[in-house]
Protein 1
Amino acid sequence: MGHAVGDVLGLAAGVAVSPLPIVAIILALATPRGRLNGPLFALGWVLGLAALGAIMLAVGGSGGASAHKQPAAWVGALKLALGLLLVLFGARQWRRRPADPSQEQLPKWMAAIDRLPPLKILGLGLLLSAANVKNAPLTIAAGASISSAGIPVPQQIGVLAVFVAIASLGVLAPLGVYLFMGERAKSVLGNWRDWAASHNVVVMAVLFFVLGLKLLGDGISILAD
């Protein structure tokens, strides 16, 4: 089980560093119903990652590992495809980076967060985790790694839980600050929001490249064995 956890740690860290979802939960916390909207967003985020990972475990099943407990060829092909996808996204992000980080603009839908009802806040958290162009491939790759580890189903579930917990640290950190820092939270979260908004494109481009190359390497290694 330990080697399976090691395989997904980097992927989980890549999911955790998600500037736009971090900005989104900070905006949700700033609404009049912040004590409700913040936890709902975080819950949606966790549910999205857990559901996508569980689907991947179900798809992989016992076919994820060969008789010698080596990853099956389809796992290598999947990681190769996901890695190529992330590298291409990284190139696209890098080309569209602003010359001046202060000119970075947030998506227009973020302006409507303060008007969203609680259920839509929950849905937003789910979408930003499970349907995100970076997080979805990384979660799918993590599920494939877990299913290819040759460990029993209960241990697979345990590794997935570790992945989800680490991958959720980025959105849980603002929630923790909001709940435990009182009045000081507004200033701290405001600084976090401004930094994440201004550096979103560059951070995402670097993450796409690094994690994409990692998945490409993993895929090539599996297919070459």
Protein 2
Amino acid sequence: MTAAFSLAQVREAIQRYLLEALPKPEAYQRPELAEYARLLRDYPERGGKMLRGMLLVYTGLAYGAKLEALLPVAAALELFQNWALIHDDIEDASEERRGKPALHKLYGMPLALNAGDALHARMWAILIKAQVPHTVLSEFVKLVELTAQGQHLEMTWMERQRFDLQEADYLEMVGQKAAYYTAVAPLRLGALAAGVEPPVVFEEAGMKLGIGFQIVDDVLNLEGDPAKYGKEIAGDLWEGKRTLILLHFLQKADPDERARAEHLLRIPREQKPAAEVGWLHERLLQSGAVAYAQRAAEALLTEGLKQLEPVLLEAPQKDFAVGVLGVLQSLVRREA
């Protein structure tokens, strides 16, 4: 078999499968339930790059699985991303998602939270209907639990005004909250859906790639193109996120600047002075903290790809293995 499926074709196939698994407004006579269906479809219909789902599909194809068997697993993974983002946006009081107002900004927190819960159930329904192997279900349990655990770490640090954190704390948190489901889980799920025990390197290298991806996201939050980024620029500062960039800045700042930054970050989002947020934004760029984080991300991404490449190229379907590396390049370099 040759790599006959382009990235665009795989993305379209995953999107089509995902949307078919969701309720349609026209199926309901009651207006309230038609609105319920619209809420469930809102984030999925906004699109997204679906790089995690595509990484899963290409990995599965590389290990001999059929596309038809991989699509429900990829759609479920993308559905996880959607319901987790709804909850994440509520927890972070985020303003935007994929270039539009966050769901709770459009419909209010209770309805958005309920929609996220419903999408969570639909995720499991897709997997059950497809009769995926138990190993696939177990991997989904792990990725959901790890993501929630990492999210708990981040939220408690903000709620309890923690400023004594080190870079190692950030790496631990982001490894659980974002890196596992971004890179490790798609690689492992692709292999598991093909009936293959995932190579051990998938976890170590995948964590490096996933952490690097998140650091790049943190960088883009401060210096990205608003039209391409899809989220609020400097939203991490308004929300008080403990990013690698912020922690590095606080460690290197003089006492007065550190005290000023910490005072700002303690203020609730709705009360933060815009001028002070602008000051901190500018200082993070000027101080070299953003450049430091970018270098750290590049090192992790390079190491991860170097570890994965020889293992992936030993997969039975080499053309698709090359496709996996292409998806990873798109994922970590934010090219697609």
